[in-house]
Amino acid sequence: MTRLKSILFKIITVLMIGLLSVSASAQSLIRDTEIEETLRNYTDPILRAANLQSSSVDLYLVNDPSLNAFVTRGQNIFVHTGLILEAETPNQLKGVLAHEAGHIAAGHLVRRDQGNKSAYGAMLIAAGLGLAAILAGEGGAGAAILAGSQQFGMIEVLAHSRISEASADQAAAKYLETTGQSAEGLVIFFERFRYQELLSNARRNPYFRGHPLSSDRINHLREIVEESPYKNVKDTDEEIQALIMAHAKLIGFIDAPQTVFSKYPESDTSKPGRYARAVAHYRAADLKSALREINSLIEEEPTNPYFFELKGQMLYESGKGALAIAPLREAVRLKPSAPLLQIALGQALIEKDTPDSIDEAIKMLKSALQKENTNGFAWYQLSQGYDRKDQPALARYAIAEQAFARHDYQRAKSFALRAQQEGLAPHRAQWRRASDIIVIAETQLAKRKNRR
After folding, report:
1. Could you tell me the pTM of the whole model?
2. Which whole number is the average pLDDT over 246-257?
3. Could you tell me if residue 231 is inside a domain?
4. List of E strands, 5-149
5. Count of CB atoms within 10 A of residue 202's CB?
6. Closest by Cα among 158, 155, 172 to 210
7. How many whole angstroms separate alpha carbon 44 and alpha carbon 239?
8. I need a surface site. Which of 1, 27, 232, 446 has the fewest CB within 10 A?
């Protein structure tokens, strides 16, 4: 038993090192307010139909071209960019999201973990425990799409049983019917990949390795859909347009610029075409062409915050931080509830480095952190703001929060202590929070030591 524990610990250690290593070719989490909002608009009604609190279910985008989506403990839904790009209609994507919500509502993850005593199960649980650190490590850095450096490629989520798959299918159809939508998209999606059941497991798309597909399953789901009074309900024009724009944006950021120009030639003057080309020109270091494309979109749709966000990103990352402030400020004005936009503006204001800009940046970052209090990048930017105001205690406190969000408990404890020692006022909320960080960090460090 001792030897088995030792082997398991070594396996888990290797896994976690892999998860935290930097690799340009690795899978990574990406943050984008526009695409996250689109997925939320599709998903939240489904979650409510499933009697799940939408605020308790987190959605994450994984930068991976493979067709996949999966859930993990803690009510997390992960969606690969490949799945979004493969979805021909919003209804197809909604169907998959409803299916994953069915797994969460039925507690399939909990039951599976309880029944799994293998080394592989231990690895999965260890990975789950490390998710918070991974997800907080590279928060919104102001870019429209930001890739973290953490790998997910080593995690192969355990396959659901055929019974749980059928249960999730039925639940998905029920949730969609409850919200007055069709489940036809899920059937169509499955029928497009019916051939997967004929392939070896190694050749199947990741989604169908974790979600066994069979003709009987598809036929049963088809019967359920045929009985729904909402079978023929179509997606709204707004939902369709949102998915088309998400496709264009993802392709612009993920594909090579020349590939983007081939998919969206200059003759394509549509909004998606100009959007994708704007991103591709920016990535090809052709700022002039990028600005031409994005400015044409802003002129046509002056109330779209994401066009201003992209323009601000282009300017900031091209070394024109001062010029980036105006479009980023307009993006925040148009979408004041979006923390990633506030963080982007805060970053640009800090770089400007005037007393007024620093004050505005701190206010902006604190507002963002009220909505995303585990955003490590926002805490780091806030520390920079406090440093420029010559407030070292608050700067150290912000770094402690950044480290705590990433589960770097040793660093969190160190900076929390430094914050208190360097003049953090005992009556302030930050002092009490620093004390909490110290206590929790010490407890977690002790647990880690005992596990070894």
Report:
1. 0.83
2. 97
3. no
4. 28-31, 58-63, 69-72, 76-80, 146-147
5. 6
6. 158
7. 14
8. 1
